[in-house]
Amino acid sequence: MDEFNASRHVGDDSPALLPPPTPERVEEFFEFLKARIATARKYAPAARDYALFRTLYHAGLRSEEASLLDRPDVHFSRGPFGKLHVRFGKGAHTSGPRPRWVPMLDQLDLVLRWFLDDVRGKFPDSPALFADESGGHLHQGTVRNRLRYLMELEGRPAADRFSPHALRRACATHNYERGVDLVAIQQLLGHWTVSSTMRYVRPSATFIEDAYRRAVTSTLGELTGEEPTP
Question: Which of 83, 90, 120, 174 is catalytic?
Answer without folding.
Answer: 90
